[in-house]
Design brief:
Strand 1 and strand 2 form a beta hairpin. With about 160 residues, the protein is mainly alpha-helical. The protein has one domain. The protein has five helices and three strands.
Length: about 160
C-alpha cells in the first residue's frame, strides 16, 4: 500500500511517484529581498567586478593565444551579466566553468594565480545556485507577480 508523505508525494514499493497536487519547490530562486537580497546583490557585484577585472588584465597581457582571448572574453561578458542579474543561474554556471578552465589552462595569462580563478568559480557557482535576489533584472522578468482581482458587482 502506498504511503503518503507530508508534502503530498507517495512512496510505493521503494519507488517515489508524484501525484497531481504535489507541491514541489520551484527550481528557480524565490528572489529574496531585505538583508538576504542585499547579500545576494553584494555577492553578484563582488564576483562580477572581480571577474571583469581579471578578464581585462588578461586582455592587456602581452603574449596572447586565441584560446585565452576567448576565455577572457567569456569571463568579461559573463561578469557584466552577473552584475546586472540577467540570466543569473545560467551565467553563474558558465562563468564557473570558464574560471575553472582558465585556472587549469596552460594558456592562462597569470602564472601562479590559479587560486583566484578557483575562488571565482566557487563564488559564481554559489550565486548560480542561490539565484539573483530581488534587486536584479531576473526578478523583474521572472519574479512572482501580484495580481489584484477586484470584486464583480452583481447588478
Amino acid at each position: 500500500m502506498p504511503r503518503t508523505l507530508s508534502w503530498g508525494c507517495q512512496i510505493s514499493r521503494g519507488l517515489r511517484t508524484i501525484e497531481t497536487g504535489c507541491s514541489l519547490q520551484r527550481l528557480f530562486s524565490t528572489f529574496p529581498d531585505g538583508w538576504p537580497g542585499f547579500g545576494l546583490l553584494l555577492l553578484r557585484l563582488g564576483a562580477g567586478i572581480a571577474t571583469i577585472c581579471l578578464a581585462v588584465s588578461g586582455f592587456l597581457a602581452m603574449a596572447r593565444e586565441p584560446i585565452s582571448i576567448a576565455q577572457d572574453l567569456a569571463a568579461a561578458i559573463g561578469g557584466v551579466f552577473l552584475i546586472v542579474g540577467l540570466w543569473t543561474p545560467v551565467m553563474g554556471a558558465l562563468i564557473a566553468i570558464d574560471e575553472l578552465w582558465i585556472a587549469l589552462s596552460a594558456y592562462s595569462s597569470q602564472s601562479g594565480g590559479q587560486w583566484i580563478h578557483i575562488l571565482l568559480a566557487v563564488l559564481t557557482a554559489g550565486v548560480a545556485m542561490l539565484g539573483p535576489g530581488a534587486w536584479s533584472i531576473d526578478a523583474r522578468l521572472f519574479g512572482r507577480k501580484r495580481f489584484d482581482i477586484g470584486r464583480r458587482d452583481s447588478a
